[in-house]
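Folded chain entry
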Amino acid sequence: MNKWQKQPWWIWGIGMLVLIELGLTAYQYFHLSLDGDLAPIVLPAEHYAKTLADPFALSTWGKGEQYAGAGRAFSHWWLKVYFDNFPGYLQSFLTPIDSLYGAAALFRWAAHLSFLFLLVNIARPVFATKHPKYFWLSSSIVGLGLAFPLLQVGGFHEQIGLVNRSVSYAAFYAWPLVGLLWWWAPYLRAALRGESAALSSISAVLRCLLALPLALSGPLVGPTQLVLLAVIIAACWLGRIPRWKVSFLPILIFTVFAAYAFFVGRWNSETPAEVPSLFTRYQDLVGGLWYQFSLRLGMPLLVLGLAVNFYLARKWLPPQQWQALRQFGGILLAFLLLYLLLLPLGGWRQYRSSIIRVDTQLPITIGLLLLLISSSWRLLLSTLSHKRRFAYGLALGGYLLIFQLADVNLSAKNECERSALETLRSSQQAISLVAADCSVLGWDIVESAEQSRLTAEFLLQLSVTDSLRLFKQE
């Protein structure tokens, strides 16, 4: 009997569910609409051209220039390069419209899978030598089974989602946080295991080289890095965690670049010049937090699961594992509080007046999910009696089923937008009339043909149309 046949039947059952979930997630992303920032960024529009011409934002502090996207050039570049090339590859076997939605779906799906495998890899417990030779295989399948239901596309997405439904927001929020999570993975894994973080020379050099592009990507990388470093330094100084037996040089280099990105971001013309008073913004934050908790059951269930796991971990886990988990939870709590305390200082936008939203809370959501997966995994592998472990596994399965059933419900569909694109593709008129039932690659209804110019140029560039087709909606 080979190593695959030795796995128990329930492991194969979980593995099959993971594969089904992979397909379901891809299907969900394929049926999401496109957003209003995609065309201006990919073309790019005139106000974004300077971002690509000056990727390191040297003209901001050197000449005092202010332009859209300052300090975020690598997210602009990543999105542009992807949509300049990948839809064309897909058109070898898909229609131009399907290739557009397929490329957008794969862009988000890849970020989704990156989060999944990073979370599982970081949360993975240390395997004892007494386990069978291929125990890692079944344990990894269990880890994927724990993580997959928690990564929401439908259902609780607005509360605990990791990959934005907007493909542009996925480029500026999800993908940079994927990079940040990869960057910190060795340190987070070591902290969860209560070990010293050891980086190889190649890994340290690679992280140093990628630190600047990563810092100059999304708006959350710089602030998250600075807050995380502050919390870790404070924890080391207070003796809450042991000092890592590894050079801090990569961390310090990344922090310098993060501070630089945060600094040049002040010249981003998309940052509002006038904002409400600080007191009003903190009021809005409190209201936003309440909304996130009361919208649906996603966030309350996540917090409840963590509370139950910590209660059981204190009783059931070996002292060393419990100590590492408790210390990690304390660091996460300190990070959460400091991050929320500082968020109103730069997180307010006219379209995001509540400050906290699924995109701005992404670092917090990642930390909570990581802690929940890690604690659940350790409890399942703990040295409990078979009866207790079975009872916990059964309760955990029911808990994750709630997330899975909620995720099947996806309200955002793209049939209306797709129909509008079919109308534009088949139209022979220079200015077409499209139904105003939904936005078309935009945030709002297009009321005049000139408003559609960037979208029309984008569709022409991707061969969705064979000539420039302006449109308006009525």
Observations:
- The two ends are 67 Å apart (CA to CA).
- The mean pLDDT is 88.
- The CA atoms of residues 74 and 98 lie 27 Å apart.
- The longest helix spans residues 96-123.
